[in-house]
Amino acid sequence: MPATVVVGTQWGDEGKGKVVDLLAKEVQCVVRYQGGHNAGHTLVVDGESFKLQLIPSGVLYPHLTPIIGNGVVVDPLVLLREMDMLTARGVDVSKLRVSANAHLILPYHQMLDVVFERHLGKNKLGTTKRGIGPAYADKASRVGLRVQDLFDEEIFRAKLEVVLHEKNPLLAKVYNKIGYEVDELVKIYVGECAPRLKKHMADTIDLVHNVLENDGQVLFEGAQATFLDLDHGTYPFVTSSNPTAGGACTGAGVGPRYIDRVVGVAKAYLTRVGAGPFPSELFDAVGEHLVDVGHEYGTNTGRRRRTGWVDAVMLRHAVRVNSLSEIALTKLDVLDQLDTVKICEAYDVNGVRHEKMPYHQSDFHDAKPIYKEMPGWKTDLSGFTKRGQLPQAALDYLDALEASIGVPIGLIGVGPGRNQIVHYNQAA
């Protein structure tokens, strides 16, 4: 049976959690396939806000199984805190399953993330300092510890001794930081975390395939976004995994023939956190308006997001890289009060028009936006649920954006609430 991937098409913070929550009503399990607790998803249900970092957004539906796949890096302490938060708020987390092959984020990963970012100085990458990059680096170096290691103290201890033999001298001699004791980490993670997590550990590949092979439906939930992808993003200002749709295959253990729908989530404008190029970035009153009205501050970090006009050049590239079948456009209501709205349709790079993403980083850094400017609609969209209710100026903007992107816009978000959705193309 088919599977659906939900992927961010910009630099993250597009509202993927809301889209996953909407689509999850129809599936049997939702799988996070990459990233760690550097990704924050906010859901608003009946006026109540839920901020998730690791647990898939579909956890709010009691009928499905939320799964953390093998491609995710897991901080057990953060995961347990999130489970406790949901339980305290009446959400059942008993069905949550965590891949035995998912890698662990441990305290030395977080410390290395902090000191390395500080060491870069003005060339810093803008990481969340949650230990994500160092954990993925250990995975690639084949010295990482996995979830399954928590349940065998001898193996956990042996692997930890090997890792700390390298990490502790690095922290002490290069960064002047105190290292970590094996016994202390064993006590915390094997002694305290493992007993609570044991019933949630599973062969998640088997779980997912059992659903697919029994005519069930699976939703794969990406964290971060296309232009933060390690291979396809604006390197080096990227994350350390593959948020693109292809990452769902390796991060959850399924082949591509199961996937027949890829929903790309995009804001009606554009934001980015941290350093890196941003051709359509705004530094004027409109940019401040987008921050204030859109509440553009990180779910996890509280950092102010940079803002700009929607970039159709980037979205066309995201369509290609992810094989997008449709776009879910969020936060259209944030543009309600503007006199004019703009779409970046192309770039000017040293006098040459580019309608595709420049392949060289220097060209992208030098790109100047070429805009299509349109009248705003000056109408509160937050209560609308049908396409026919939208004012003509909003329809013109959406049609122009859809034509420029090249795939249908299926859903439109007009507010933070679960039901503040317009089904723009019912066939999409």
Mean pLDDT: 92
Distance between the termini: 19 Å
Proportion of beta-strand residues:
15-25%
What is the overall shape?
globular
Q: Kindly provide the radius of gyration, computed on alpha-carbon positions and rounded to a whole number of angstroms.
A: 22 Å
Helix content: 25-40%
- The count of DSSP E runs of length 2 or more, i.e. the number of strands, is 19
Can you list the strand order of the major beta sheet? 9-7-5-2-10-1-11-14-18-19
The parts where pLDDT drops under 50 for at least 5 residues are none
Indicate the structural class: alpha/beta
Number of helices: 12
Main β-sheet, in a few words?
10 strands, mixed
Characterize the structure shown.
This protein has helices at 16-23, 76-88, 107-120, 132-140, 153-173, 182-197, 204-213, 246-252, 285-294, 312-322, 361-366, 392-405; strands at 3-8, 29-32, 41-45, 48-52, 65-68, 73-74, 97-99, 103-104, 201-202, 218-221, 259-267, 269-272, 306-311, 326-330, 340-349, 352-354, 368-375, 409-413, 421-423. By secondary structure, it is an alpha/beta fold. Strand 3 (41-45) and strand 4 form a beta hairpin. Helix 3 (107-120) crosses helix 4 and helix 5 packs across helix 6. The protein starts with a strand and ends in a 5-residue tail after the last strand.
